[in-house]
Amino acid sequence: MQSTLILGIGNNLLTDEGVGVHVVRYLEAHHPDTPGVTYFDGGTLSFTLAEPIAEHDNLIVVDAARIDEAPGTIRCFEGADMDRYLTGNRASVHEVGLMDLFDIARLSGTFPDCRALIGVQPASLDWGEFPSPEVAPSIARVAQMALALAARWRQ
Fold first, then answer.
1. Which residues does 106 contact at the CB level (< 8 Å), separation at least 6?
2. What's the predicted TM-score (pTM) here?
3. Does the CA dihedral 93-94-95-100 come out positive or negative?
4. How far apart are CA 44 and CA 18, in angstroms?
5. Alpha-carbon separation of residue 38 from 15, 59, 93, 116 (angstroms)
6. What's the gap between Cα 20 and its chain centre?
7. Is 135 exposed, middle or buried (0-12, 13-18, 19+ CB in 10 A)?
8. What digits encode the pLDDT tens for the residues 112-143?
9. Which CATH superfamily groups domain 4-154?
10. Measured between alpha carbons, how far is 62 from 146 in angstroms, rounded to an integer?
11. Half-sphere exposure of residue 145, counting CA atoms within 13 Å on the CB side?
12. Which of helix, strand or coil describes residue 65?
């Protein structure tokens, strides 16, 4: 069975910047036993994430993303579309960028063929432990989108 890592990244002390972490927490609470799927709070990224990525066949990353849409808008970038999006958005508040982790995966032969970034347009990046009212409703929708994607890849 194909294994999928759903990696939520972001700083959950900066309102909408933490949307990926909030999605992972939602999945852990509402879908704790999804076969073949692992949920992981990646925080603000680090090189230590290379190992969990390498241990799975597929990767879904959930993060706040500048997609020039209304706050709370969800966009899924899959495969090469994800790579193109990340190449154009190397600037990150995170210690290590996703492209850096992908470089490690490529060099180690563990780069996932099935990969996606589910991005949510933030409304606020101010101090706060909870998502903004514009972004909060997207958490359940992103969770369902991630689970549907993992299920499609298992087939």
1. none
2. 0.93
3. negative
4. 9
5. 24, 10, 25, 15
6. 6
7. buried
8. 989 999 999 999 999 999 999 999 999 999 99
9. HybD-like (3.40.50.1450)
10. 8
11. 21
12. coil
Q: Which two three-digit tokens encode residue 78?
A: 């899959």
Q: For the chain, which residues make up each domain, given as ranges? A: 4-154
Tell me the C-alpha distance between 85 and 88, whole Å: 5
What pLDDT digit, counting tens, does each position of 44-93 carry?
Answer: 888 889 999 999 999 999 999 989 999 999 999 999 999 888 887 644 44
Q: How far apart are CA 110 and CA 68, in angstroms?
A: 32
Which amino acid makes up residue 3? S
Closest CA to 18 of 126, 104, 147, 99: 126
Q: How many whole angstroms separate alpha carbon 125 and alpha carbon 96?
A: 19
Do 114 and 59 meet the contact criterion of CB atoms below 8 Å apart? Answer: yes
